[in-house]
Amino acid sequence: MAIIDPMLGMKLVYVFGMTNVIFMLAVFFTCRCLVGVKFVNEMLKKPWYKWVFDHHCWYWRLFFLSVIIHIALAIMTFGIPFLK
After folding, report:
1. Maximum Cα–Cα distance for the chain, whole Å?
2. CA distance 26 to 20
3. CA 62 to CA 27: how far, in whole Å?
4. How many Cα atoms sit within 13 Å of 34 on the Cβ side?
5. What pLDDT was estimated at residue 73?
6. pLDDT at 83
7. Hey, which of 12, 28, 46, 61 has its CA 20 to 30 A from 21?
Protein backbone atom coordinates (compact mmCIF):
# COMPACT_ATOMS: atom_id res chain seq x y z
CA MET A 1 0.00 0.00 0.00
CA ALA A 2 1.54 3.26 -1.14
CA ILE A 3 1.22 6.27 1.14
CA ILE A 4 2.03 8.79 -1.60
CA ASP A 5 1.26 8.85 -5.33
CA PRO A 6 3.43 6.11 -6.89
CA MET A 7 4.61 8.22 -9.86
CA LEU A 8 5.60 11.15 -7.66
CA GLY A 9 7.19 8.77 -5.17
CA MET A 10 9.31 7.05 -7.84
CA LYS A 11 10.51 10.41 -9.15
CA LEU A 12 11.41 11.64 -5.67
CA VAL A 13 13.17 8.37 -4.79
CA TYR A 14 15.21 8.73 -7.98
CA VAL A 15 16.07 12.40 -7.28
CA PHE A 16 17.19 11.64 -3.73
CA GLY A 17 19.14 8.62 -4.98
CA MET A 18 21.07 10.90 -7.32
CA THR A 19 21.49 13.40 -4.48
CA ASN A 20 23.02 10.59 -2.41
CA VAL A 21 25.54 9.91 -5.17
CA ILE A 22 26.46 13.60 -5.50
CA PHE A 23 26.99 14.05 -1.76
CA MET A 24 28.89 10.76 -1.54
CA LEU A 25 31.28 12.02 -4.23
CA ALA A 26 31.58 15.38 -2.45
CA VAL A 27 32.47 13.60 0.79
CA PHE A 28 35.01 11.40 -1.00
CA PHE A 29 36.76 14.18 -2.92
CA THR A 30 37.03 16.39 0.16
CA CYS A 31 38.22 13.59 2.45
CA ARG A 32 41.08 14.63 4.71
CA CYS A 33 42.81 11.28 4.19
CA LEU A 34 43.33 12.09 0.49
CA VAL A 35 45.65 15.01 1.30
CA GLY A 36 49.01 13.94 -0.01
CA VAL A 37 47.58 12.48 -3.19
CA LYS A 38 48.91 14.44 -6.16
CA PHE A 39 45.43 15.28 -7.52
CA VAL A 40 44.21 16.69 -4.19
CA ASN A 41 47.41 18.63 -3.57
CA GLU A 42 47.05 20.30 -6.97
CA MET A 43 43.36 21.03 -6.34
CA LEU A 44 44.08 22.58 -2.93
CA LYS A 45 45.98 25.34 -4.71
CA LYS A 46 42.73 26.49 -6.31
CA PRO A 47 40.59 28.87 -4.18
CA TRP A 48 37.25 27.33 -5.19
CA TYR A 49 38.37 23.81 -4.19
CA LYS A 50 39.75 25.12 -0.91
CA TRP A 51 36.30 26.57 -0.16
CA VAL A 52 34.66 23.22 -1.09
CA PHE A 53 37.25 21.35 1.00
CA ASP A 54 36.55 23.56 4.05
CA HIS A 55 32.87 22.55 4.00
CA HIS A 56 33.51 18.79 4.16
CA CYS A 57 31.55 18.32 7.41
CA TRP A 58 28.43 19.82 5.84
CA TYR A 59 28.55 17.28 3.00
CA TRP A 60 28.36 14.46 5.57
CA ARG A 61 25.31 16.02 7.24
CA LEU A 62 23.55 16.62 3.93
CA PHE A 63 24.45 13.10 2.76
CA PHE A 64 22.88 11.49 5.85
CA LEU A 65 19.79 13.70 5.56
CA SER A 66 19.44 12.74 1.90
CA VAL A 67 19.77 9.02 2.72
CA ILE A 68 17.12 9.26 5.45
CA ILE A 69 14.70 11.06 3.12
CA HIS A 70 15.47 8.56 0.34
CA ILE A 71 14.70 5.60 2.63
CA ALA A 72 11.52 7.18 3.97
CA LEU A 73 10.24 7.96 0.47
CA ALA A 74 11.07 4.46 -0.76
CA ILE A 75 9.14 2.90 2.13
CA MET A 76 6.18 5.25 1.64
CA THR A 77 6.12 4.58 -2.12
CA PHE A 78 6.89 0.87 -2.32
CA GLY A 79 6.25 -0.35 1.23
CA ILE A 80 8.41 -2.96 2.93
CA PRO A 81 8.51 -6.03 0.68
CA PHE A 82 9.56 -8.41 3.46
CA LEU A 83 6.33 -7.80 5.40
CA LYS A 84 4.03 -9.02 2.61
Report:
1. 55
2. 10
3. 10
4. 16
5. 93
6. 79
7. 46
